[in-house]
Amino acid sequence: MPITIGQAFPPAPTFTEQHIPDLTGKVAIVTGSTSGVGFEAATILYSKNATVYLAARSSEKGAKAIAAIKDSPECTGSRGSLRFLSLDPSDLSSIKASAHEVLQRETRLDILIHNAAVMRPPTGAQPSCVQGHDLEMGTNCLGPFTFNDLLLPLLRHTAANAPKDSVRVVWLSSIIAHGVVRGGFVFDDQTGAPAVLKDALENYMQSKVGNDHILSLSVNPGLMKTELQRHAPPIQSTIMGLVFKPPRYASQNGTFIIPWGRFGPIPHHIKKALSPKSEGGTGAAEKFWDWCEKETAAYR
User: Fold this and answer.
1) CA dihedral 286, 38, 19, 148 (to 10 degrees)
2) Cα–Cα separations (whole angstroms), residue 171 to 114, 180, 187, 207, 219
3) Taking the mean position of all CA atoms in its chain, how far away is CA 291?
């Protein structure tokens, strides 16, 4: 079965929230958690008694999400805690303050889920991040890269005093075997930065490819009907509503994880991009990492 078919129409999940142990005392951050996959992930973590930060732009949506989670039947009796964290991945200059708030309040961080993303912003919408980067590349890659780096000392501190592989960073990817440009990235020869492609969906797929005893996982959440597709044409949105699964399926995913909670293969051309030229690869991942380091240095 082709990789994309197997991920678009996966078998029934063998790992669900019922298999997640008690998380009392654990601290988690879920970005983009006021709706969709992030909301469901935050709900599950809170139901297991974790302290969960809902990181998002809107405090109003954050308050509504927290109230909805507390009112959900599965969270009745939870001994966890829900906290809103203001976070705007499209503005690198604001991220340090968000990370600082966590560092001031917490002595540990067990789970960090990079879920927030934008896809195919409509023509005429904000075309770039505050710092001038392409909106999808900035929000989906540079923002999470900066946030992750600022929280890395706390993650490492937690990992040093926790069971192996219990501290986790999860990067929400996509069906990277389909739709992404060959090799994962197209670089601008003049600037050395990832090129802004003509097709907004190609820009999105390129940005999702870019995503110390800390288990770091890249997860394809599956074909989910969420607010991510809010800018899709009406006919496309209708089809998605018929075919795509609700976001609760994606929030259960636990290398590269594919729906539903399975370890999956990384496409060969992406594997080559992950390896340096000295090992027969293209060196694209190393080049992209260096670019992220350079672009975010002033904000970390």
Assistant:
1) 30
2) 5, 17, 22, 12, 6
3) 19
The pLDDT of residue 251 = 38
User: Nearest-CA neighbor of 131 among 110, 145, 113, 120?
Assistant: 145
Q: Which DSSP symbol is given to 141?
A: I
The H or E element spanning position 86 is strand 81-86
Most distant CA pair in the chain, distance = 57
Please indicate, yes or no, whether the overall pTM of this predicted structure exceeds 0.85. Answer: no
Classify residue 209 by its DSSP letter. Answer: H
pLDDT tens figures, 109-137:
999 999 988 776 655 555 578 898 888 88
Q: How far is the C-alpha of 239 from the C-alpha of 241, rounded, in Å? A: 5
Query: Which residues does the annotation mark as catalytic?
Result: 173, 204, 208
For the stretch 63-66, contacts whose Cβ atoms lie closer than 8 Å and that sit 24 or more positions apart, written own/partner, are 64/34, 65/33, 65/34, 65/35, 65/39
Tokens representing residue 284 in the block: 């694209």
Are 41 and 113 in contact, with CB atoms under 8 Å apart? yes
Supply the mean pLDDT for the chain: 79
CA 240 to chain centre: 21
d(CA 3, CA 178): 9
